[in-house]
Amino acid sequence: MSDLRHHGDAELAPGLVDLAVNVRAGTPPAWLRSVLHEAVDASAAYPDPRPATEAVAKAHGRSPDEVLPTAGAAEAFTLLARAVRPRRAVVVHPSFTEPEVALRAAGHPVERLLLDPADGYRLDPAAVPEDADLVVLGNPTNPTSVLHPADSLVALARPGRVLLVDEAFADTVPGEPESLAARRDVPGLLVVRSLTKTWGLAGLRVGYALGAPELITALRDQQPHWSVSTPALASLAACSSPAARMEAAHAARELASWRTALLAALPPAVEVVGRPSASFVLVRVPDGARVRLALRNAGWAVRRGDTFPGLSADHLRIAVRDPRTSRGFASALDRILDGTGVHSPAIPGPPTTTETIRAEPSDAPVGRVVLVGGGPGDPGLITVRGQQELARADVLLVDHLAPQSLVGSLPAGIEVIDASKLPRGRSMAQERINALLIEHARAGKRVVRLKGGDPFVFGRGLEEVEACLAAGVPVDVVPGVTSAVGVPALAGIPVTHRGLTHEFVVVSGHVPPGHPQSLVDWPALGRLRGTLVVLMGVATAPAIAAALVEHGRPEGTPVAVIADGSTPMQRTVRTTLGGLAQTMAEEAIRPPAVWVVGDVVELTREPLTAETTGT
Fold first, then answer.
1. In this predicted model, what pLDDT tens digit does every residue of 403-430 receive, in sequence order?
2. Helices 323-337 and 288-297: angle between axes, nearest 10 degrees
3. Which residues, including other chains, have CB under 8 Å from residue 522's CB and lie 6 or more apart?
4. Most buried residue among 56, 171, 199, 371 by CB atoms closer than 10 A?
5. To 10 degrees, what angle do helices 50-60 and 230-239 make?
6. SS3 247
7. How distant, in Å, are the alpha carbons of 70, 77, 234, 238, 600 from that of 52?
8. For residue range 300-316, what is the model confidence (pLDDT) as tens digits?
9. Reported pTM
């Protein structure tokens, strides 16, 4: 029998490049480390799972009674093994071995369904015995990296059967297209997820289970009190937030491009098994045990395959890393396979420092893209770093809301491209902008993308970053003064004030309340007591004002509309929420304009200019 308790961390040793453990490099990120530090400071109290449970439920469109935080995915397997008494348990292999370990430890007999390598290890639902009352499989599957269609998994569901789907690697697949995490209509479904891979929390043990309330209750009844620590719960809540899920989605897209680079770099003698979809690739090589040891001697750790049921010593699982690391690994593997590097002590080791990785020659000259926030319009409000980047540019892609006078003062020889998106006017498609950034950077040029305000505040900045990174183009971001704060300030309006408001919310008004594309919780904003700042909300102002009043904001709430903020044409119109629509029509307000809702509007009556402030 295979060594079911063997895992990738056993392959590691000091000095080896880790291709054996599928945890994203460079994690946890700095913001998550801060969450962990704060949670440690709060660890004198017993863990409270409720905030994490509610955050996970919201992320997956479920109710809290359908969520159970666990000490890693492994605890969920153990809890299920204790909670159920299957007559016929079937584990689909090759797959992660911990579920079978947990079932056997609880005294349950286990049958294995071995998928066919000739068919790419794809699942045929008809191959699962009809009378199986517990079926276990992974999706995407560790170690094959194969992603099964959701419909094939749903076809396994039966009344009276528990269907355990291990989705520990689901968030490494862009868009999670085959995930069942949000499915509430599949009888007996239990989905297990993990934070280990994407967020680098293997040492903390964080996971959760999703299922029908009665199944979750059965698992919870088997769980010891406080088995999930306060730091783990804090991480679970934080990593379930919209911002964190967006970061995870970006990491998945980047990983997909890195996986493509790894597959392209592998030597011809390497057979890629199945169709990889996750953060690792399963390969088969001749004399795999010898090759694995030779790789180890050359400084590379990969995961052996013969401890997975259905695989052999010729199978190796390789974690996806950045393209330079993958090329270094593929080069070492190629030398070993052709016999020139099996025993030779002269085999160059893998890159182990940032300097040696950067020293490796690239395949083609690659420049750089820099996203620069130009501020709300006044050229004097661009940052010093932003000015420096403009002066260094070879190519400039500029928006119509960016300070246009800066363009006229650029050094000669800079190619300027108009990338404006004018309402009902000329408009360059985002896909075309992305393509131009990549095209010029690949030609070895330094490309500056000049935007109005800040690139990441309704500026599609992340979309451009993701496109560049997926194409192997490095990107820097230079923040700018966002008009959401800068324009009200120039009108003498602070968005917060001590004793008056401790919160402000910035919202895009480009689609009105009730529009199918709107992502704004207008009822919640109607109950807001603090400051509301609306960008891109001139045409939709009447509908937005009506929605805010409908959901609780008083009609008499002060409103200030600042048009052409930070420019010589700046003007401020003051009104109330109830009178906003009429005032904007009478004053012929046109974009660009920012409007502010809240008591802060009444604090200052004069705009703050260089003259009024004495600067």
1. 877 877 777 778 999 887 665 445 788 8
2. 120
3. 513, 544, 547, 548, 551
4. 371
5. 20
6. helix
7. 11, 20, 7, 8, 34
8. 999 999 999 999 999 99
9. 0.59
